Amino acid sequence: MFETIRERALWDDGARLLAGVSGGADSVAMLHVLCHWARRRPLRLIVAHLHHGIRGRQADRDAEFVQLLAWSLGLPCVVGFADVPARAKKSGESVEMAARAARHAFFRQVCAETGATAVALAHTADDSAETVLLRLLRGGGVQSLGGIPPASDVGRLRIVRPLIDVTRESVEMFLQSHALRWQEDRTNRDRSILRNRVRHELLPLLESRYQPGIKRVLARTAERIREDAALLEPIIQRAERRAAVGSHLDLGALRALPPALCRHVLARWLRRQGVPDARLDADYLALVQNAIVAGRVRVQAAPDRRIETEGGRLTVVSSSHRVRRAPAPRTLPIPGKVDWGGERMISARFDRGILRPPRARIGDAPVEAAIRRPRAGERLMVRPAWPGARFAPIGLEGSVKLQDLFVDQRVPRERRAEIPLVTCGDEVVWVPGHRIARAWAVASETAPSVRLRFA
Question: What pTM, to 2 d.p., does this model score?
Answer without folding.
Answer: 0.63
